Amino acid sequence: MNTFIQDLRYGFRMLAKAPGVTIFALLALAFGIGANTAIFSVVNTVLLRPLPFKETDHLLKISLVQFQAGPRGSPLSPSDFLDFRAQNRNLEMATFATDTFNYSGSQAPEQVEGAWTTAGFFSTLGVSPMLGRGFLPNEDKADAERVVVLSEGFWRARYNADPQAIGRTITLSSRNYIIVGVMPARFQFPDHTVQLWAALPIEPPTRRGPYFMHGVLRFPATMSVEQARAELAEIAARIKATTPALPPDYGFVSIPLTEYLVGEVRPALLVLLGAVGLVLLIASLNVANLLLSRAVAREKEISIRAALGASRSRIVRQFLTENLLLACAGGGAGLLLAVWGIDLLRAFGPNNVPRLQDVTVDRWVLGWTALISLGSGILFGLAPAWHGTRLDLNSALKAGGRSTSESVGARRVRSFLVVAEVALAMMLLIGAGLLIRSFVSLQKVQPGFSSEQILTMQLRLPRAKYTELPQVATFYERLLERVKVLPGVQSAAIASSLPPNGLEVSDTFNVEGVLSANDASSPLGSVLFSSPGYFRTLGVPVLHGRDFNEHDTPTTPRVVIINETLARKYFPKASPLGKRFKQGGSDRTANPWMEIVGVVGDVKYEGLDIATAPAFYLPSRQVPIRGMNLVVSSSLPQAAVTAAIRAEVRKIDPELPVSRVNTMEKLVNESVAQPRFRTFLVGVFSAVAMLLAAIGIYGVVAYSVSQRTQEIGIRMALGALPRDVVRLVVRQGLSLTLIGAGVGVVGALVLTRVMSTLLFGVGASDPVTFAAISFLLILVALLASYIPARRAARLDPMKALGHAQ
Predict the structure, then answer these.
(1) Nearest partner of 616 among 505, 515, 518, 532, judged by Cα
(2) What φ, ψ does residue 192 adopt, rounded to 5°?
């Protein structure tokens, strides 16, 4: 123990004797460890921390495989859920659908995010309310009493955390609900924005669509996933047997619920964790190179200690003690940086990263920080410790007060460390370059609409107050009349969905003469409801035919407008105008035929990186719906227009809230928030890696110049010109860079395959990116080598010849 304390004291003194080396090493390690800790905190919370459900591995997210909707499938319809419940024997399933509710309990009406659920929702997930109860089996019946469960945050903010809130009445969308429970704070499903859950009254449907519900299934502990999926297939077969009109590929597709919640962000988080891991590795190699140079300068000191009887293990232990001191200090500073970094991630991170607001430094994060600090200390301590055990005592002691020359082995180690740094930096830079090119490609995507000077806001007319559809149509007509005459408003319209990420409903459709009149051959398309002037307001071109107009009323023949993708697919050689179109697929009187009166340009409603699906628009006057988005084109400031519109809404209905006020530019920016954020982070990490690699190259070349001062003096005395000296020195740094770049390119070809799912419009082995990054790194290496080369070229030959004499 006394020996260890002596090592600690001596280590402190040696670190204090070289403040420049110590400070640089601490900064490099602090950034590397801090970045690792911050990103691992996110990975730990989002990917590793168990979901707040019972037996999460027994929960599956259920979708439909029909309509070729991809591996995640498409949403369910109420018919699918009811048929499942009738045919099921061993599995437990519930459904949910997010929505907004008008809340009338505060001073001003407001909208809150919520979700409709079937009765078995909470029991299927395996969670219990912290107060009260969940939904009873029959509370999702159409004639059941309306009940609601609150989130802990809503209960605390609106009811001051009063336990007596259970049993009270709350008014949502002009309808009274009984509060039956409060969920714990850790329960945030399907995401953190949901503040309440209401039992969904399911009425017997007249057809299979529309498709808007998400299914959650729990299989018993006695079953495996494969057995549960086999039973799902059996249930689908029984449903098909009782419903002949279903398509041939009808069935259920399932993925683990955890995959549904975090699967989309997992690749990005793992790429970020790998990126910060490379940064820490590069920083450790840089510190190792720096400490190796210092170990060479300490050769006489080490030789004297060895001559006085210190064993090799004693010398190695001293080096490791000093390095672990440095690593611990770097880990402590990195932990402080990580806490600050986590706050930044929570404040500026994308809203669609699940559980991001719950990220904290827990015992697992502290353990990770300790582990990587210890690991980095051992890593960068190996080289100087190895050098300290291979000294030639006679040569070192004979050097007297002169500087010692670096051994061939030490030079090779230093060169290897620089090559490794360059290779790792190359891999990270290429990854960042691919993400940057991908993000640029994403921003170049034409969304199909204009986002300049467009203001949007949402209104939800409560069914309890606006019971008849003519009331709904009249409200929106009056509102548009008032908004259009406001100062500064060029045009205004309403629509059910907003681009680029606001699709609300999909449904099947039929085209007369092209598709047969039954569900089995009906494709799926996006359903949108809009008023006259919507396309003009958003700048969507009407390619053929006309827009909706004031003559499209409930008493006139039904009309529809289709998008370019639908027209191109089903009318490749003929004009669709005048053709008959039906929503819902099956030939039933409830779904009348409509005349196609227009074709409009494609609009991105499901994301800029998603291929445009067939879509059709219905006139809001002929088919009124209660939840609509107001779209306004105005040159006035957003605040002024919003205040004026709110005043007009209050004049028509004082109890109706206006929510989700945004500009279209903001909506477009939010749609690419996640790729922008990860691109920014990887870009920052790669820039730091390149800087550290440049410092490593500079350090090796500069140290080599100091060791070769006499040789350079002889060359200059024999007639070598300054440019010859520059070429000689630069060649050394450039050769190390080229070797490291070659190794890095090979590594990048392998590792970029992992991030292929994050790329858009660029391949994982894009030659332009690889060539550009290689050129950039070589240019940086030339600059890092040129600075010491220029200093060497300015040496006085006479002084250089007298060096080390």
Answers:
(1) 505
(2) -75, -10
Under 8 Å CB-to-CB from 449, ≥6 apart: which residues? Answer: 499, 538, 539, 540, 603, 664
- Whether 617 and 600 have beta carbons less than 8 Å apart is answered as yes
Q: How far, in Å, CA of 379 to CA of 376, rounded?
A: 5
Contact 608, 667 (CB under 8 A): no
Cis ω before 109 (30° cut-off from 0) = no
- Interatomic CA distance for residues 631 and 531, integer angstroms: 10
Per-residue pLDDT reduced to its tens digit, 299-337: 556 655 555 555 566 666 677 777 788 888 889 999 999
H-only helix segments in 145-224: 152-159
Nearest-CA neighbor of 497 among 681, 408, 406, 620?
Answer: 620
Tell me, yes or no, if the pTM score tops 0.70.
yes
Write the DSSP string, 70-136: -TT-B-B-HHHHHHHHHH-SS-EEEEEEEEEEEE-SSSS-EEEEEEEE-TTHHHHHT---SEE----
Q: pLDDT (tens digit, 9 = 90+) per residue, 9-46?
A: 666 666 667 677 788 888 888 999 999 999 999 999 99
For helices 19-43 and 312-348, the axis angle rounded to 10 degrees is: 50
Residue 241 CB contacts under 8 Å (≥ 6 apart), including other chains: none
CA 728 – CA 718 distance, rounded (Å): 15
CB of 596 closer than 8 Å to CB of 581: yes
Distance from the first to the final alpha carbon of the chain: 44
- Residue 179 in contact with residue 168, Cβ under 8 Å? yes
- Tell me the pLDDT tens digit for each residue of 159-169: 999 999 999 99
What burial class does residue 308 get, using C-beta atoms within 10 Å of its C-beta: 0-12 exposed, 13-18 middle, 19+ buried? exposed
Instruction: Take residue 345 and report the two structure tokens written for it.
Output: 């991630």
